[in-house]
């Protein structure tokens, strides 16, 4: 699970993938770069829950769950790193090419939580990925000086 949202470390090389992509595509757009390289092949799939959804799930579980079984909170959906990069590029306004760098590691092919228990209890993530990325980008623009790690 790759949480994201306001307050992220957006260092271009030492942060999680989504905030790093926000910064890299923003800076590439500012410079007028023709392309941005992403690490690996772009094929691994990841789930990206927003921090506000996770906080909401925690409160929901404190109010509605007292069992001993583990309950996993997430979106229950994933996308490839290349699809994520395309989404971030679109939100940021970068119109150049996205190229993959297979010399960099891909990591685990797929990381997706089974959220069926939480889903059965009536909770679902509310913040869509595009909406969440747009909000994270807006936060980055307001806090770029301190968000770059």
Classify the oligomer. single chain
Query: What fraction strand?
Result: 5-15%
- Extract low-pLDDT stretches: none
The coarse overall form would be globular
Give your account of this protein's structure.
The protein is mostly helical and 149 residues long. It contains five helices and five strands; from the N terminus they run αββαβαββαα. It has a three-stranded mixed sheet. The mean pLDDT is 95.
Please provide a brief summary of the model.
By secondary structure, the protein is mainly alpha-helical. Helix content is 44%, strand content 11%.
Task: Fill in the keyword field for this structure.
mainly alpha, single chain, 3-stranded mixed β-sheet, 5 helices, 44% helix, 149 residues, globular, 5 strands, two-stranded parallel ribbon
Secondary structure elements and pairings:
Blueprint: H1 17-31, E1 35-39, E2 45-46, H2 51-64, E3 79-80, H3 81-92, E4 97-101, E5 110-111, H4 116-120, H5 129-147
Helix pairs in contact: 1-3, 1-5, 3-5
């Amino acid at each position: 699970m790759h949480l994201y949202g306001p307050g992220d470390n957006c260092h271009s090389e030492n942060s999680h993938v989504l905030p790093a992509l926000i910064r890299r595509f923003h800076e590439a757009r500012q410079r007028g770069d023709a392309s941005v390289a992403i690490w690996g092949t772009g094929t691994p799939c990841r789930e990206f829950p927003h921090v506000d959804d996770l906080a909401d799930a925690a409160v929901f579980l404190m109010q509605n769950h007292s069992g001993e079984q583990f309950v996993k909170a997430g979106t229950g959906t994933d996308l490839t790193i290349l699809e994520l990069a395309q989404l971030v590029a679109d939100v940021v306004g970068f119109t150049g090419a996205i190229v993959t760098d297979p010399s960099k590691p891909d990591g685990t092919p797929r990381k997706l939580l089974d959220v069926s228990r939480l889903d059965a209890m009536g909770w679902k993530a509310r913040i869509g990925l595009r909406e969440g990325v747009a909000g994270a980008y807006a936060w980055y623009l307001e806090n770029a000086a301190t968000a770059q790690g």
